[in-house]
Amino acid sequence: MPTIVGKEVGPIGYGLMGLTWRPSPPPDSESFTAMKAALAKGANFWNGGEIYGPPDANSLTLLKRYFTKYPEDADKIVLSIKGGINPATHAPDGSKEGVARSIDACLEQLGGTKKIDLFECARVDKTVPHEETMLALKEYVDAGKIGGISLSEVGAQTIREAAKIVKIDAVEVEVSIWSSDILKNGVAQACAELNIPIVAYSPIGRGMLSGKIKSLNDIPEDDMRRHFPRFQPGVFEENLKLIHAVEAVAERKRCTPAQLAIGWVMCLSKRPGMPTIIPIPGASNEARVNENLTAVQVTDAEMDEIEKAMEQFEVVGGRYPDGHPVEG
What we know:
Blueprint: E1 3-4, E2 7-8, E3 14-15, H1 17-20, H2 28-40, E4 45-49, H3 59-69, E5 78-83, H4 96-110, E6 118-121, H5 130-142, E7 149-152, H6 156-165, E8 170-174, H7 187-194, E9 198-201, H8 235-253, H9 257-268, E10 277-279, H10 286-292, H11 300-312
Parallel strand pairs: 3-4, 4-5, 5-6, 6-7, 7-8, 8-9, 9-10
Antiparallel strand pairs: 1-2
Helix pairs in contact: 2-10, 3-4, 4-5, 5-6, 6-7, 8-9, 8-11
């Protein structure tokens, strides 16, 4: 079993973003059922954020309500929270004051129902020395207010520099058949060398690898994906070619495309020179949770076939719109 901050976690985690950061979040009853199902399937590593919804309806407030109802689950969960964003400007704030504001707000919103095992600044603040951000986080670790420090959407150089200042317990980056950048930009190599596990968000490629999005009409008009380069007219149709190749492998394997996509991410950990990689698919209902957390083993032959498809049908467009603060 993988370990994070010295605690065993399941090979697949659970992303909470979709439970609060959407135009019409599901009711608590539905969210709680999904969360319970995730834990029952062994996904005890949960990933949420201060920024996943407004202050009165984000991951922390949802978690407070959940752990108030199910206090027996609090110690079973290894909780990772991202913040470090200025609530007024929505820009990264890695200053000592900004880090303190964010962590204090998260702790207040949890209301003592659960400890934050990992905290990460959602994006690197380029206006502040990274050492200042890391030392500010370390103060909270030393005080016992958070369990450890994670990094989010960083490049290899930032990982190496941060690891010289503080202990880095995890690195969260986007990883999927749809977004395999870490295999080429040095991030996977740096994490392997430093023995830092990677937390892989969007392992189903923002839903594309589920096989359920056949055209742009399948994406609601108010969905944020509509603003992303890979979901633009002309580009989207080109990117469907890779999705069709993945669907063909999944059909022969008798699993869903989403299960194959998550299995591919998990299988990367077994390759020489790779770090432990923990995919954290999100799901807002019990059926989808059960699908995503039913692990499938991807064979070497299937990995090779998928890799050939990735080379043949290269994804068109960036992961985020121009100007979005991501590294790597």
